[in-house]
# Entry
Amino acid sequence: MSIVFGDDFKELVRANTNLVDLVSESIALTPSNANDYVGLCPFHDDKRPSFHVYSDRQSYRCWVCDKGGDCFGWVMDLNMVTFPEALKMLAERANLEMPQRHRSEFNRTAGDSKVTQYEIVEWACNLMQSSFRGEVGELARKYATERNLTAETLKTFRVGFHPEEWRWLLNKARGKYTDEQLVSVGLAKEMKSGRGLRDELIGRLVFPIINERGQAVAFGGRVLPGGNDDKGPKYWNSPETDIFLKRKTLYGFHQARETIRKESCRTAIVVEGYMDVVACHQAGVTNAVATLGTALTEDHVRFLKRFADRVVLLYDGDTAGIQAAERSIERFLSFDIDLRIMTLAEGQDPADYFEQHSKDEFEELVKAAPEAWEYKLQSVSSRYGNATIGGRQKIAGELIKFLVASTGLKGTIKEDLILRNLSQRLSVEELALRQQLSQARQEESGRQRRFVRPNEQEIPPQPVRKSMKACDLAERELLEIILSEPETVNFARYRIGPDDFEDGRYRRLYELCVDLIAEEGLLPEPQRVIAAAESSSELLSLVNALLDSAREKGISELMNEDPLEHQGDSQRLDAEIPAHLQRVLNPLILRRDRNQIVVSKQKMAQAQNASGELLSDTLETLRRITKLKRNEMGNQ
# Structure
């Protein structure tokens, strides 16, 4: 295959990427019509399918959060990577060889680019795997044997070992990477004494943290019993870096992804640590993942929603585990996902459990895991008991507080169903529960207002914009016409220019359409416009929004009206303009003329003040004013 460069290669990658297939690898899509596929948006907490992928345009748009883009934008937004990285990923997916000029961007040996950070982490990962297998890894291998970790498990999770040498990685990196680069990915840090740098993972069993694309981005380390440094924290996680964000990363997801996505599963089990994930996978429960030193975040839940219909949070059965479970419920109850809570017997973690139980027994527990709100009810009921009126009253009060704390649940069907179920279970009138909930929310709202910090100012309510101005509507509809009927750009571009647009987004899009025809001789057909938009999320979302509204309005049918003949001077096109297009252009032309008159009047005033005489452009201004008045009278 011949090597192509620049935009040519980008367009080759685009041509070899079917966006519907690409998006379907991450979220479930269902056909809406011939060219439109819909699914749950991965960029916000989508409760009903609002994310549209257009196969004919090879672009996407969410009708709620207005996120839009093409294949490159999808990879960049979903995976938080730069454009060169997205280009490389899509080229590899399409089995296209990266041109030498582009490839060099990914092979830098110095600098602070994200690609270099990936390379450094991968280098360290391979080095520590070799160390685990070598002579210095004897203590680590002994611990792995004691924990019943098989050779296959160790290989799957790329388990490694950092020898008990303070500058082992720093010394190994000499001539290859700088000390600063190792610090930038969390492999080294300044010593407390201030006498230079030291490695971070000294004497630890090392678990590489792999992102969803299979790239090593960080590390977790466990202290080894019997080692020289076994008095430090048992577990250590890499600090956050440019390529590693804890709130968005789940340990083990790369290994669990395919199982979670299967139609027979569609379930993700979230456990508490590396060893829990490893124990689950070794036992055959390959849909387990773990957070990385943080509680489960909204970003984690949104991420998992792309692949799973159900999320089961597995906590140790001790007091701390129960409290952690209840905190998670409050934060995620309003999410449109089947959230379950599962706990093991007190003191047990998954590794302990699988020493005595089988995979099938574990999966039965997963299936029987109660819904999040049900778990909360069971937990509160076990504390107060529901045999007495006082007990039921306390249970109701706790559940009301729980619903108030679950922001985003108000007014949803889920809240309605919970209140009805709670009414039946506690033998309390549903209306009484609703009134108590409403009062509790009002009190909470009042507390929040009272505790506004002195330096915080409440933002006054913004006035509702009742309707768009005629010219704003005209700017939008002109672009709807051009995108629906690209040949009309020739009528528009000789009458108004990009500077005649006041809305910056519309101005940029109109300029792009005009440049296509003026500079390249190409009509601004949607796919050409999308390609020319340089993967701008804002422009691509706007293009899709305009095409959708044009279809709803029936713009193509409106453009079939009988045309109007031009009645302008000889500088205008000697052609016929569609009547609807003329109506849309009129307010823009009149606004442009008014603006020109204002400028001319200012020049007249300046000229008169300077010389007291009328200059030649004064007469031209008077002619414009007369012409504008006639046009306005003719359009009344």
Q: What stands out?
A: The longest strand covers residues 216-223. Residues 373-448 form one domain.
